[in-house]
Structures are given as C-alpha cells and as structure tokens.
Design brief:
This protein has five helices and four strands. By secondary structure, it is α+β, with helices and mostly antiparallel strands. Helix 2 packs across helix 5. The longest helix has 26 residues. It is globular, with a radius of gyration of 27 Å.
C-alpha cells in the first residue's frame, strides 16, 4: 500500500511538471507581444482642456481642523469631518475621538452631496418628498444636514461634511465653521 502511494505521488508530480512545461512552451513565443500604444498629446486649447479649481491641501486641513474644533467646543468629539472635491475624492478626513465607523461614510457623502449640487445638504433634504425615486437615490449621496459646498467665484469646487452629531443642524454648524476657516469669514455667517 505504501508503494502504491509513493507511485501515485510520483505520477502526480510528473504530471505537474509535464503540464507546467507544456504551458510554458505554449506561452513562449506563440503570441506576439502587444504593441505599445503611443501617448497622444492633446492641444491645451480651451475647447480641448478644462481648467479646474481645487481646494489646496493646506486649506483642506485647516477646514477639517476648524470644523472638528467647533464640534469639540460644542461637546461633540465623536464626529468625523471630510473635505472632498466636486467628484467625491477625499482631500482631507479627520475622525474625532470615539467617532463611530459610520460617521466616516456619512461625512464623505454629505460633503460630496454639497459639492455636487452646490447647495448645503440641509436645503437639499427639504426638496426630497414623495414616494417614488428621487435625487436621494443617487449613489454616494446623503441628503441629511451637515454638508456645505465650498465655492470659488460662485462655482462649487468642493464640499465639507460632518457626520456623527445627534442632530444634523449641529453637524452643519461644524461644517460651516470649517468652511469659514478657509473662506475668511467668521463661522455662522
């Protein structure tokens, strides 16, 4: 019995080596290498290239720090603050002490919703009504108070969102403080 197991193991090993050799031979040289795709230079003309404003890393960091500081001053240390660009890409994220996991996604989604629509999420939430499909069904959006758009020359370029306070109005107050820190205006104006 021991001899048959040894023979079986030897046969399996031989089959594996043979299969690997056949596979290597089949892959060697039978398929031409893919041709390199040349890079294409697009002319930087206004009809071909769109310029985009973004919030800098320093401003993003200042905004999330100011928003979290406002929440902490209001005895709300368990929130998360996010700044995202208008496409929803996170530029800065700061999770407060004891902030639950869900606050991260809530802050990002509120920030994205405010940036994408150029309107505070508290205003957008008022527009949701009825029983059928609505803008609230769009992926990655959250129509709860706590998201504020960041605009350059009246155009939304980013958003700041806060999630985790027991009331969306408290989240929005913190987000507004963060926005004010980089807009040069006092919080709440």
């Amino acid at each position: 019995m021991k001899q048959s197991r040894t023979a079986l193991a030897a046969a399996a090993a031989s089959a594996l080596v043979l299969t690997a050799g056949v596979t290597a031979a089949a892959n060697a040289g039978t398929t031409p290498a893919p041709a390199a795709v040349p890079a294409v230079d697009v002319q930087p003309a206004p009809e071909n290239v769109v310029q985009q404003n973004r919030i800098s890393v320093g401003a993003s960091a200042a905004a999330v720090n100011a928003a979290l500081a406002k929440c902490q001053a209001d005895k709300l240390p368990f929130v998360t603050v996010a700044v995202v660009d208008r496409f929803g890409t996170v530029q800065a994220l700061l999770r407060g002490d004891n902030a639950a996991e869900h606050t991260i996604e809530a802050a990002k989604q509120k920030a994205y919703t405010a940036a994408a629509f150029g309107t505070p999420t508290s205003e957008l939430a008022k527009r949701i009504n009825g029983n059928g499909p609505s803008i609230a069904d769009l992926p990655g959006t959250l129509f709860l108070a706590g998201g504020v758009p960041l605009k350059v020359n009246g155009v939304s370029v980013a958003g700041i969102g806060v999630g985790g306070a027991p009331d969306g109005a408290l989240d929005e107050a913190c987000a507004t403080a963060g926005a004010g820190a980089i807009a040069g205006t006092p919080a709440g104006k």
